Amino acid sequence: MTLGRVIRTGLATGLALALALAGCTATPSSLVVSGTVENRVETVAVPSVSVPAVNLDAGFTTLTGTRNPVTGRTATNLSTVGSTYGFGTFVRLAEVSVAVGDRVTAGQSLGRIDDAALVAQVAAAKADQEAALAQVGLLGDAIDTTYDKQSDVNDAKAKVRDAINKIHDGKQKLLKARATIRKNLPLAKQGLAAVEHAIAQIPPGVPVPAQLLEQRKKLIAAIKAMNAGLKKINGLLHTLATGLKKARSGLRKLEDATAKITDARGTLRDLKDLATIQADALKVPVDLARTQVVLAGLTSPVNGVVVAAATAGSVLAPGATALSIRETRPSTVTAWLASDQVTRVCEGDAASIVGDWMTGDGVPATLTRIGTRSDYPPTSVATEEIHLTRAVEVEFTATEQLPAGVPVELHINSCHPAAGNSDSDR
User: Could you report the per-residue pLDDT of 262-300, keeping only the tens digit for each?
Assistant: First the structure.
């Protein structure tokens, strides 16, 4: 106990004794107890992001299995090197732009994790989309070919057979594309849910990053496009079935060869539309990969002061604390009251916080919480109660910010008089 605190306690005790000896009947209206300023900090965790796997099929095999919502590839035929050596289990802090003691504002950029793999992930997703767009060009070339072949009636059969084969292949591609869209649609919805969850995690009052809003807009548009694509695919399947029947009839009637080639050309146009839909569907993995890059940034959730920060180059697990920030707000003080003291206080009671370093009458505070159970005060807190005696924890909110973790003295204007001093006890 400090000298100032001894003097204050002695004066209070002497005054109470003098009043008792003088037969004064005034009711005491305050308590003096010890408390501790709480040290509350907000943490900025290392984000959990997806690292791309190496696709071993090179596009030459029919893939089956769960489709990765970020890369757009199936889980089958992916390299296991990453999982074997733990790639993606830990991430490296590429940049930390603040230091301990710096003041930061909510939404301020604090640094980034190494996003080289995430940027490569975007490139891989874009490459898949470009491959799908190349199919559109190939189908366009096939349509032009039908015009060239139309000039040679003698080759009509060969042209019709070619059209039948293309229709058959187109039907298979159409069915495969429909299955692909049906797989990607729930993944797109999951991606939208993930973005919505990320937005929901942003504290109230903190502006939502424009990138997240843009990604949400794109995902919603992609889901709408895929739903429209499924509807169109079903219509195309019906059209392909009709076209196939007409093409086979053309083999029996050469005189109808020209008309049947025209039908085949129309079918190829439908296939081109389908390829366009599939290319549009592959925008979803690109958008999700870009979202991962956005999530690689570290931002402050509150206004405050940095009290701990990892250094650039540190390797941390997802979810680990990268920075700790003490929010700039009025402090709270925790104290422990004996059973008889608890009966004399109410939530909303005014109090004054006094510390050895203060000058004047202290800092005003309000009793904002009273515990619901008696417990043993922890030995790490400042209290006049014996730590092996049960007490009730109470919390006071100050009108300003105080040094975290320091012991203080609380002068409480209690709502009830002390036992033995009320009118009924005299």
Answer: 777 788 888 888 888 877 777 777 777 677 767 777 888
Question: Are the beta carbons of 243 and 177 closer than 8 angstroms?
Answer: no
Secondary structure string (H, E, C) spanning 159-195: HHHHHHHHHHHHHHHHHHHHHHHHHHHHHHHHHHHHH
**286 close to 214: Cβ distance less than 8 angstroms:** no
| Calpha distance 185→172 (Å, rounded) | 20
Q: Look at residues 419, 360, 353, 407 and name the one whose alpha carbon lies nearest to residue 383.
A: 407
Side chain identity, residue 244: L
First to last CA, the chain: 35
b/e burial code for range 206-244 (CB count within 10 A of at least 16 → b): beebeebeebbebbeebbebbeebbeebeebbebbeebb
CB 178 within 8 A of CB 230: yes
Q: How far is CA 368 from CA 80, 334, 336, 347, in A?
A: 55, 10, 14, 5
CB atoms closer than 10 angstroms to residue 309? 24
Q: How many CB atoms lie within 10 A of CB 311?
A: 8
- Give me the half-sphere count of Cα atoms (radius 13 Å) on the Cβ side of residue 350: 5
Within a 13 Å sphere around the CA of 59, how many CA atoms are in the beta-carbon half? 9
Looking only at the bridges linking them, the beta strands covering 103-104 and 315-316 are unpaired
pTM of the model: 0.43
CB contact set of 11 (below 8 Å; sequence gap of 6+)? none
